């Protein structure tokens, strides 16, 4: 596997999906997908094998050894099978922004379009925000695929603007739409919970990973959640904080319940913003909202990500039960 000199991590993983530096062996698959989907690409001519070989040899291969490449392209894999390719193009190293590019296997578009876009974007955010420390990524898209906007919205991209009649496809003019996502690591905002946050908290609470890590793993129904949420809003011993990026997209929550003179911590990160180290940041910010006190966390043994987060925050593992560990921090 070739490596990008500008990255100190090369492989990014979510479950059975991976982003790896673009593989030479995937070039003809990519060629076919681009030719199949030429209608939405800034590609004027049908690609041939000789053109593709030339592009990989003269352009792609040179990016690996550059400290500040013009583009960073990856193969998007599921169990080592390439389902798409994409990454960052038009990298601006001074202003720390880049355009997102992604083309998936044409056969996947009908059933898995939004799902695969979301996974790809979640992995790409790790590359661009955590390891490159870029400020912003954006998309430039012909207004031809409405499902793309669903994926971008779910992944925390904000609509920024429309260029009317800006591209010509099949002798007809179409608009171009811009969407963007700003790095939440450097622009994280905290606020108190509002009544209208009930829906997003309900969605987060039923996220499969959240349910696996909860002590009661059963799915929560809406009526039970809404009753619980209304009670929490009235509970003076409960504080819920919502965290957003600069564009106002919610990325996580921390709940502090005051029990037996200690603050018990519950937190979760939006599934499309995981892998960025936000857990540590939101817990730290929530603790800073309390003048002083003792903070507790109960974490299942299998939840290694949270165990690591609390240890990195200076929590002490004070006791251990059959299925979970108790952590404590005194401020």
TrEMBL record:
Record-given protein name: GNAT family acetyltransferase
Keyword match Ribosomal protein: no
SUPFAM superfamilies from the UniProt entry: Acyl-CoA N-acyltransferases (Nat) (SSF55729)
All residue ranges annotated as the N-acetyltransferase domain in the record: 188-331
PANTHER family cross-referenced by the UniProt entry: GNAT-FAMILY ACETYLTRANSFERASE (PTHR43415:SF3), SPERMIDINE N(1)-ACETYLTRANSFERASE (PTHR43415)
Claim: Transferase is one of the keywords in the record: yes
Lineage per the UniProt record: Bacteria, Pseudomonadati, Bacteroidota, Flavobacteriia, environmental samples
Name of a matching Pfam family: Acetyltransf_4
InterPro entries registered for this protein in UniProt: Acyl_CoA_acyltransferase, GNAT_dom
Taxonomy, superkingdom: Bacteria
Record key words, sorted: Transferase
GO molecular function, one term: acyltransferase activity, transferring groups other than amino-acyl groups
